[in-house]
Design a protein that fits this description.
Elements lengths: L2 H5 L2 E7 L15 H5 L7 H17 L4 E4 L7 H6 L6 H11 L1 H7 L11 E4 L9 E5 L6 H4 L2 H11 L6 E3 L17 E4 L8 E6 L23 H10 L7 E5 L2 H5 L9 E4 L2 E5 L6 H11 L5 E5 L6 H7 L5 E4 L5 E6 L1 H4 L1 H12 L5 E7 L2 H4 L9 E6 L1 H5 L9 H14 L12 H18 L6 H4 L1
Parallel strand pairs: 1-2, 4-5, 7-8, 10-11, 13-14
Antiparallel strand pairs: 1-15, 3-4, 6-7, 9-10, 12-13
Helix pairs in contact: 3-17, 5-6, 17-18
């Protein structure tokens, strides 16, 4: 790749649109915020507008921003597969009466957290010089297991050009290959156009002899396996010199850190992480230093500064870390960080005043997402693209002022302002959701990607 090509490489954050059935059902075991807010009344319209406003503000600040559509919900097809029959209304009514937990699952708007959509390797790092995509199987929870097929169709619809992009199959949906996508994957490098090292973080090992010193959490399940991370790396053609596999600290998982991106965030050469992020902290840092072409800049937050409770409640480490042209970095944090004194003090006195590239902190209100356990970093899938690859994207998915205006008007037309768990059985909600999604695919110009559109 020429110097000109390298200079045109940009990281694009593809945020997930909050879907029309956004609700608080408390489905995610190990996700403290999700469990604590289960049963509350949600505001889908506010959630979608909050997400769009975050995208718009980052676009206005000069960051490349993309959009990914939500899933088809409620997933009535999944209920039919599980033995419910009749009209759509009858299926919903019977599920509500006989298996309300299944109804809540098939109505989940969890695809808004596109950090779980898949794992991406940019063309700079791939042996065939193409961007590589693997949708995550999300097999550890039923409501997310329903997502990968549609996710794969969406990614193929947008990253369609086979000259530039390569799509891989979802890993087998078994506990041994439990894969949660980019929420457990971080690419570290100097500039985005330079070769990177891929940090894969896993919670447990499924096969073979457990590595020395490793142990599993006792309270909550570990969602990512070493075997899944290794398989994705193989699919993408990554070599041993390009990869680091590190176990997440099991005590962090038991404290509610269900994904690594709840306890660490990296971008460029910077790795911002909590003391309890990795079981072998020094070994992880040493291997990264050895394999990276540019010096690693670790920014460590000690336990004495931010407790595990504060880390999980504030989602400080689920912030977006964004690279600026002058070498500095901007940290986009949820408003909850201001509500925890220790966290806000750490941001001001330790991060901003510390010897690191983080020079600005921007606060965003994403409360509708946060109450279900997803902060700013959960809401985005990072894709590093050259100028030619950006030009090769299909559809109308890169955010502009015009697209923002259209999406905002679309939300205003189709979304409810109040949704309680009992409302999920309303057949009118299903009709409203399908009508909204059908219009959205036309607005984004991505073609038919939903089951109801494919027949």
């Amino acid at each position: 790749m020429s110097a000109a090509d390298l200079s045109s490489v940009r990281e694009v954050n593809f945020d997930g649109l909050v879907g029309p059935t956004h609700n608080y059902s408390g489905l995610a075991v190990g996700n403290v915020a999700s469990m604590n807010h289960g049963g509350l009344v949600s505001n889908p319209k506010e959630g979608a507008l909050q997400g769009l406003l975050k995208m718009k503000s980052l676009m206005d600040a000069g960051y490349a921003q993309g959009v990914l559509p939500p899933q088809q919900r409620p997933d009535i097809g999944a209920l039919r597969d599980l033995g419910f029959s009749g009209s759509n209304g009858e299926v919903l009514a019977r599920a509500s009466k006989e298996a309300p937990q299944l109804l809540r699952a098939v109505c989940s708007a969890s695809s808004m957290w596109t950090a779980n959509a898949g794992t991406i390797t940019p063309s700079i790092d791939a042996p065939d010089s193409r961007g590589h995509f693997t949708p995550a199987n999300l097999q550890s929870s039923f409501h997310r297991y329903l997502e990968p097929q549609t996710t794969g169709r969406v990614l193929k619809a947008i990253f369609r050009d086979e000259q530039h992009f390569c799509h891989h199959p979802v890993l087998p949906a078994t506990p041994a290959f439990s894969d949660e996508g980019a929420a457990n994957h971080t690419r570290l490098c100097g500039e985005h156009g330079e070769p990177g090292v891929h940090l894969f973080v896993y919670g447990r090992q499924a096969f073979g002899d457990v590595r020395s010193g490793e142990r599993e959490p006792k309270r909550y399940p570990a969602r990512q396996t070493l075997e899944a991370s290794q398989a994705v790396a193989r699919q993408h053609g990554l070599t041993e010199a390009q990869t680091v596999f590190s176990q997440q600290h099991p005590d962090a998982i038991d404290a509610g850190v269900f994904h690594n991106d709840v306890i660490a965030v990296g971008n460029g050469p910077v790795l911002l992480y909590h003391e309890m992020a990795f079981l072998d902290e020094e070994g992880t840092l040493d291997e990264l230093r050895t394999k990276m072409a540019s010096p690693l800049i670790p920014v460590r937050v000690p336990l004495e500064a931010v407790s595990m409770e504060d880390a999980v409640a504030s989602y400080l480490f689920n912030s977006q870390l964004l690279s600026n042209p002058d070498g500095t970095m901007t940290l986009v944090v949820p408003g909850e960080c201001q509500e925890r004194e220790a966290v806000w003090r750490t941001i001001q006195d330790y991060l901003l005043a510390g010897n690191n590239p983080i020079s600005e902190v921007v606060v965003k209100d994403v409360k509708q997402s946060m109450r279900n356990g997803g902060g700013p970093a959960c809401l985005r899938l990072r894709v590093v693209l050259t100028e030619a690859e950006r030009a090769a994207l299909s559809g109308r998915v890169l955010l502009t002022n015009a697209l923002y205006t259209d999406l905002t008007a679309w939300v205003e037309r189709h979304y409810r302002v109040r949704l309680a768990p009992d409302d999920l059985a309303d057949p009118q909600l299903a009709e409203e959701s399908l009508a909204a999604l059908d219009e959205l695919t036309q607005l984004l110009k991505i073609g038919p990607v939903y089951p109801f559109q494919l027949g």
